Each structure stands twice: as C-alpha cells, then as structure tokens.
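Give me structure tokens for this 133-residue protein.
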Amino acid sequence: MTKTVSPACAVSLCLLGVALHAIGAHAADGDWKRGRVYYQKVCTDCHGAKAGGAIAPNSRSIKDWTAYLSADRHARGKDALKKYVSREYRASIKGVNKAAEKYADVPDEQLFNDIRSFMLKGAKDGDSPASCT
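Here you go.
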C-alpha cells in the first residue's frame, strides 16, 4: 500500500523547510545578544551625547536597516559605518566605554554581523522589535 502526499501538504512542507532554513541562516549570521549590548552601550551612548538622540532599531523596517547596513555610510554619509565597529575605534573609546573594552578583540566583521542581527531582529517588522533601552 502506497500513500501519496497531497499537493497542499507538499507545499506546506516546502514552505516550512524554507522558513526553517531562513531562520537558521539568519541566526548563524551573528550573536544578536552581543550586538544588542554594543548597540545600546556604544551606538546609543554616542548618538545620545553627540547626534541628537538615540535611534531605536524599531524605528525602521528590516528593509530600511538592510539598505543602511549595505550602504556602509554613517554620519550623513561622511564616514563608513564599519569605522564605528572597527577594533581601532573600539580601542579609541575603551577607556570610557565598557562595551568597547569588553569586545576589543572581537573581529570587526563578526561584531558587525552581531550588530546587524540585533538591528534586524529589533526592527519594527522584526522578530522582536526593540527600543534603545
């Protein structure tokens, strides 16, 4: 006796597989918890003190954050965004910022991926919209 799978069941299984793959790939990109600490303790502190206020992850959509991160522009286009995640930048502020000191030896690309994971997870249409606190 042979059982056949209905087309609706096959489609459902395919969609489930795609969703699980996407979640796994997204989670593998970075440690969102470390990204949250860096974002809240470095990015938010600086923006609060020097840039007119913090920018919460939930203030923008995943699409907006993805475009911003891909453009790699910061400070209204004056600087590369990755400058503020670099070991050199962290070394320059580690005396006054505990998170920069704590993550001083994390490779730049890894920390950038951590921050990206937090920003996308915390976006207004992300898995867990997040404020700056």
